[in-house]
What does this fold into?
Amino acid sequence: MSQYIPVPDERVGMELDEFLCLKFPLLNKGAIRGLIRDGRVLIDNLVVAPGRRLKYGQILFADFEESELEVRPLVAPVQPLKVLYEDQHILVIEKPAGVAAEPERWERDAASIAGGLLQISLDRSEGEEGLEFRPRLLHRLDKDTSGVLLAAKTIECERSLRDAFARGDGTITKTYLAIIEGEYPLAEGEVGLIELPIGPDLRRTGKMIVDDRGKEARTEVRVRERFSGFTLVECRPLTGRTHQLRVHLSASGFPLVVDPTYGRRGELLLSEFKHSYKDKRGRTERPLLGRLALHAEAIEFPSDPGAPEERQRVESEIPKDMARVLKQLGKVRPPRKR
It folds into this structure.
């Protein structure tokens, strides 16, 4: 069924495809742009480009329905996402481990952070005509990494911060916590720098390696807490290469204590480092940590796209599973006396 859609005053100046993303939340932007290019969305009975800005008094003609398209709605996690910070431009959420940022190719119907963000907007727009905003992720974390994720609420903010991410000039800074094997050789307060180029492993799809022909990659490292045979380190990526922290730490001889791709194990058992551990008869030992030992602790970014000198820092507490590992290490693997 065709429909006429008057342009609300508050949407004047918005690009056509952005407006329709709010009006039809189950459709992704690519599908909407395709419909516009096919001439199934008109402005004042004229075919226009997806980026045409809306004006006062205009009326859209939409010759489609969501139900006629093969829509696969994004699925939100069962547990609502925790919002750490929000203003008129930005939404920062806390990503739980085990949930992909975007729907995965082979699990399109699984929950994702993108689905959770859409659900936040849907919940707030209940009873309204379309969405108030449609948040978009500005960066990603590995599925089994937890911590802060940044999303834009407006197209202007998205473009500004995507440019900042691409420049890699320190406008946006990220801090991670990693539990690693070995005792990292840095004095208290000292900052180490790992400079190793990274490129794709041509023998294994999706894996990255240190490669002289790869792209420049730099990571700052600081020691947060020492244990006998293990270290909690703070990592700050100065570049944005895929799997950068995991590759750099592993190549330096200090892989994450849990990393099935770049480390030695896919889960960490208490019995592996507690020599006095005794099995409970008839019970299988449960892992202390069953995912990557990596947490995005903080992100700092311009609080106003038009004023990059004004900064906002958002932090996420270390999650319970990693805190449990640190507690046990503190009990049974205190630092060696030097």
Remarks:
- The chain has six helices and 16 strands.
